[in-house]
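User: Sequence in, structure out. Go.
Assistant: Echoing your sequence, followed by the structure tokens.
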Amino acid sequence: MKDAESAFPYVDGTFVFDEFILKNRIRVNRYLNTILWAFVVTGPAIALGIKGGVFPDITYTTCVVISAAVCVMASIHLILLRKFPGSVVTSIAALLSLNILLVYMACSHVSIFLTWFLVPLLSLLFCDRRIYIFALVVNYAMMFMSTWLVSPHYAGLRADADTAFAYFVNTFGGFTIETVIMLISGLMISKITVDNFRDMFEQHKVIKKHESEMKEELEILDSMAEIYDNVNLISFVDNTEMSLRSAEKQKISIDMQAQTHTQMNQKLKLRVMPDQLDDFLKFTDIRTVRARLTGKKIISADFIDVVKGWFRAQYITVDSTSDRIPNTVIYTTRNVDEEKRREEHLIRLSLTDEMTRLYNRRCYDEDLEEYKLKGLGDGFVLFSVDVNGLKKVNDQKGHAAGDELIKGAADCLALAVRNKGKVYRTGGDEFIAIVHTDEPEAIFSEIRSHAGAWHGVYSDTMTMSVGYASKKDEPDAEIDELERIADARMYEDKERYYRENGIDRRR
């Protein structure tokens, strides 16, 4: 719990996202200060390059200035970090220090290209869009200034630039394109990261609430004696049983030599599901209960009453010898049909994709492990399926249209596979089907047919890229290899689709 609280801050028993962001900012500020101090070695590293002839245009003075400047900036940031550890100003100071260092290095003719984008990349760690945009804007301004200042120097060294201005336009044009790409991708990464963190906090709130509710329910159940349908007190000292529900509280003798079950269980066995009867008789055999309960507080098992549904039978030790051999035991039965149904429902939910009602990635991974243990039959076929053009639909028609497309694809796959296998949604628009058939091409054709006949409210058509691999065609392949082959064929199908339709995927 201590680790959980450090990762997910609590206020009044709930997780607070803003507190988490603040803690993250403090942590990142500390890392950035470490990075600044690490940059002190930049000067000595460049000096070694000068000595080795790698940097002919750089002086040793530059190396000293770089290391000294880094020490000053790292010290200033350290002071801010100690006084205002979670401040946005402290974060900006670190990023600005890195920018200043890059400008000086560029003006000193230390070639800087990819490193320019290190600063906005590091700013993404704060999970704060404001800091990221500030870092990118300042970074762009710094690149502009340093490129303008060094243009006369580099223009004279390059044959493809007639003037300093030509060199500037060429170089900074590339920086501008990269900055735009960085802006778009960074905003997307920032949004996805923050959204995922928010989802995690919401999930923790739900779990915490569920734990609280369960605790209250257990406290209520513990205080309710009426929870048990039957309660029998069994004594192995005088070999008797007595129903605690009975008003008479009459003791009934048990013949441990000739009798295998108590009177209660002799009545209960008449209502136990036939295919569970042998297990019930074995569990309730009074001759073995004492030995099975030795050293234990409780033993239990669940069975089905043909009339009332699931019930739980329990033997609970009340009194025992010094060797933990039971002397007195309470035998109870309690209806757990609703609990069992809820448990089965939760299991189904945990293995089902919420949007499509297909099986989810977790179910697929569990089934994969099962196949790895038990092996694959000759009729085993694995299909890899991906919806074409989902991003375009999302962008142009909205996420409701995209969701419609995903649900439509799920319906088409379910109709094609039917009872021959299972269909899983393993990603946004990615599906896998495990089918047992000798005619995979027929399934392939059905998927195409159903997809071709599909029409939605937002979209008139839908296409899917499909690839499959069968154990029959690849007898030496394990399931992981079949998955890889199916994926490869699906991507070939997708490339063919885009090529035939004249679509440039890069755009």
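User: And one key feature?
Assistant: The chain has three domains: 2-209, 227-338, 351-500.
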